[in-house]
Input
Amino acid sequence: MGGFPGRSVDVPPVPRESPGRIFLRFLRFGLLAWGGPVAQIAMIRRELVDEERWVTPAQFNSVFAVYQVLPGPEAHELCVYFGMHAGGRIGGLLAGLGFMLPGLVLMLALSWAYVTLGMDAAVLAAVFYGSQPAVAAVVLRAVHRIGQPVLQDPWLWAIAGAAALGEVGGVPFLLSLPTLGAAYLLAHGGRRTVAALVIASIVGLSLAMLSSLTLLPEAGLGPRERVLDGDPTPAALFASGLRTGLLTFGGAYTAIPFLRNDAVNVGGWMTDAQFLDGLALTGILPAPLVIFGTFVGYIGGGLAGALALTAGIFLPAFAFTLAAHEHLQRLVTRPAVHAFLIGVTAAVVGLIAVAAAVLARAAVIDGWTIAIAAVGLLVLYRWHAKLAVPAAVVGGGAAGWFIQRVLTGL
Output
């Protein structure tokens, strides 16, 4: 592969690296991937752009802008891009696998331990008692972090609000997301009356579905129906992961509402407490956040289910870069496409806000957990180091153990 267009003549050609060297380089990135996507992207940029000058800063910014508006974990997609830049499509594949492998192996081990030990273990229960509200704080902070750069005008706020109301009412997100994306495209193109009517249609449908909840007392947040009988099959878990991977606009945290919908609301193979436990385990790993899908799949279908759901989540991130990077880079720069994707991203912010509220409600159950969540939020807002998220989760778990095993003697 000859590289991508737009390369500065002042920058030396990227050295061709062997497949083994590419894999080991990105495996090392995966082993050091602490602190979430911001820290991971900064690490990749520092070594490959600032130090080794594989691409210019301007080219990096252009590529990064593409992955910010496309679904999928940006850090992982950047690894695939750089691997392909140095070693063709085989290099891209190996770079992506190397980056995700440490987190995958560690999450599989932790998932096995979680299922084997079970929540009957008093010490483990006490730790998760404290880590769950800390994770709720992490997700709430993520809503702010994702929403702040996205919700830049009243139309985007209205779209996020309509999506949130639709999630509460049970409007399928496969309907609300493209509809609201189209609404912003219309507003951006000056057809504001039509855009307002499109947003109003989602709001009206949401209110109509909410009014039916009194007739559906077992519907939870909305009139969703269980579609899986018994344990989900690997094929169903792969489909869930693929759907999630295709809809995670705005960063890895936006995978939360989609996986939670499938695992808790529709499939019913997990509880909100178990879902929070999976996020807590992810928070202490050097891994892309979406690796928590491995835990979700393991609970639903063991090792085969974990691998199937993980493959589904990461497949789009590989495919977008390996098969269509240049085409997508040209496509997302078109004003109409860019406006539509911004509208979809704003709608996803509304979905994750509802998921954050539901998870917080499940985790914050008494005065102690309120305090843990509050301290977690304080740490996350005041401490910007890459270890802030693991520190908040581990600190919450330690506090939970101390409260239940020492103070209350449970």
